[in-house]
Amino acid sequence: MRKLAQDEATQAAEAVGGTLTRAGRPLVAISLCADDFGISAGVNRGVIEAIEAGRLSATSAMTTRPSWPKGAASLRRYAARADVGLHLNLTLGSPLSFMPKFASSGHFPEISRVLAGARRGQLPEREIRHEIARQLDSFLDHFGALPDFVDGHQHVQILPQVRQWLFDELDLRGLKGRVWLRNSADRPTRILRRGIELKKALGVAWLAAGFAREAAARGFATNEGFAGFSKFDPCCDYAADFAAYLRAPGRRHLIMCHPGYCDEELVLADPVTITRERELNFLLSPAFTDMLERACVKLARMAPPRIEIAA
After folding, report:
1. Is residue 305 part of a domain?
2. Structural domain of residue 292, as residue ranges?
3. Domains: count for the chain
4. Annotated Gene Ontology MF terms (predicted)?
5. CA-CA distances (angstroms) from residue 270 to 40, 158, 263, 265?
């Protein structure tokens, strides 16, 4: 088991140029991505604070949320410091388009309904295709550049039907090879070694089966290695969980996180509140940088230089 861990770490280092620490250990580059930018002003403020401090290398934005336009203007100043992507949203708040079948109440359905529809192949294709397009448009309109990558709130980007429609829309816009996609799956052996939220991590990996292969066939790169599943329990030790996320890194390892400040807008929108401040406090602490140094890990972007759009 120890040799396997060493081999995986060496492979990860080779994928980023084979950099070694002064102690001769391979230096592993990971992408640390803050999900849910745009969900509230408090979360936006916390994410930007973490990027400014050099504690994140990516963030993904919910372009359906009221706090996205103003947040995008602030985030644009940090475009050179972190990958900024679209956090495709089909389960929280209201859509940007008219969706009489999928969101008849004017609000997105819960993830359980979306999962059930995806498994049966019964999601409304025309409505979801249009919504994907609208969310990409909103990203471009307010951020002024194409997204570096696309992931999804509650991992909707990996779902059957949704993934194909996402590939199609990105391809239609000429984004093949220009954006990367989040693969929310990892090898079961790695998931078991981390030992965090096993049921959730293994369940998402099962749902994501074939995603990386299909994305590659369509010309889109993905991360290889994924961690960050959480109970979102304020009583849990997030630092201990994060140490586990660093175990068994893949060649292009990605860790998701959910930092931010809790405000009224967040409380009204999402059940994940207090733990966001716990995560942010850890990321901004010396304990975080000490942990990365001990683990021979550095934060890095996955995307090539961003493509700017002329006004």
Report:
1. no
2. 2-86+147-159+174-299
3. 1
4. deacetylase activity; hydrolase activity; metal ion binding
5. 10, 21, 11, 9
Specify the pTM.
0.90
* pLDDT tens-digit series, residues 137-183: 999 999 999 999 999 999 999 999 999 999 999 999 999 999 999 99
Do the domain assignments include residue 251? yes
The CATH number covering residue 239 comes to 3.20.20.370
247 contacts 196 by C-beta, under 8 angstroms: no
Report if residue 310 sits inside a domain: no
- Binning the chain into helix, strand and coil, the percentages to the nearest 5 are 45, 15, 40
Give the residue from 179, 224, 243 showing the smallest Cα distance to 12.
Answer: 224
The contacts found for 120-129 with CB under 8 angstroms, 24 or more apart, are 121/160, 121/161, 123/161, 123/162, 124/99, 125/161, 125/165, 127/97, 127/98, 127/99, 127/100, 127/101, 127/102, 128/90, 128/99, 128/102, 128/161, 128/162, 128/165, 129/165, 129/168, 129/169
Residue 25 confidence (pLDDT): 73
Do the domain assignments include residue 166? no
